[in-house]
Amino acid sequence: MSKIKNIFQNGPVSPLFIAESVTKHSTKTEIGAHQIFLGQIRTDEIEGKTVKAIEYTAYEDLAINQMAVIREEIFAKYNLTCMHIYHSLGIVNAGEICLFVFTSSKHRKEATLACNEVVERIKNELPIWGREIFEDETHQWKTNQ
């Protein structure tokens, strides 16, 4: 297994970081396709209250180790050139990015399928939790959809 990478960062994923990540790949001319998933915090209305932010927590060591296994399985299944994953911890406000998944390959189908699978597996398999914070400062645990 390759080096285990920490997928977590404190706070939101900045648009500048996303742009810089894409720009860094312009020298990798064997790549023909990139697929990007950006998870953004919505202002959902739940029982008359509006979500203003989500506070993310995780069992970090377990999540990082599980992500390393998922990463190896995705690379074995799809012909990818590279894959990058960043997930927020702490408070992320509505409109900000909390998840950035970036896959690259020679052809679009591989990049697209791999990116979609990674996102689903993160949501379903990693011990990451979100607490919705409402405008009135009350909160509740979020359920993934």
UniProtKB/TrEMBL annotation:
<dbReference type="InterPro" id="IPR003448">
    <property type="entry name" value="Mopterin_biosynth_MoaE"/>
</dbReference>
<keyword id="KW-0501">Molybdenum cofactor biosynthesis</keyword>
<comment type="similarity">
    <text>Belongs to the MoaE family.</text>
</comment>
<dbReference type="GO" id="GO:0006777">
    <property type="term" value="P:Mo-molybdopterin cofactor biosynthetic process"/>
</dbReference>
<comment type="subunit">
    <text>Heterotetramer of 2 MoaD subunits and 2 MoaE subunits. Also stable as homodimer. The enzyme changes between these two forms during catalysis.</text>
</comment>
<protein>
    <recommendedName>
        <fullName>Molybdopterin synthase catalytic subunit</fullName>
        <ecNumber>2.8.1.12</ecNumber>
    </recommendedName>
</protein>
<dbReference type="InterPro" id="IPR036563">
    <property type="entry name" value="MoaE_sf"/>
</dbReference>
<dbReference type="GO" id="GO:0030366">
    <property type="term" value="F:molybdopterin synthase activity"/>
</dbReference>
<dbReference type="Pfam" id="PF02391">
    <property type="entry name" value="MoaE"/>
</dbReference>
<comment type="pathway">
    <text>Cofactor biosynthesis; molybdopterin biosynthesis.</text>
</comment>
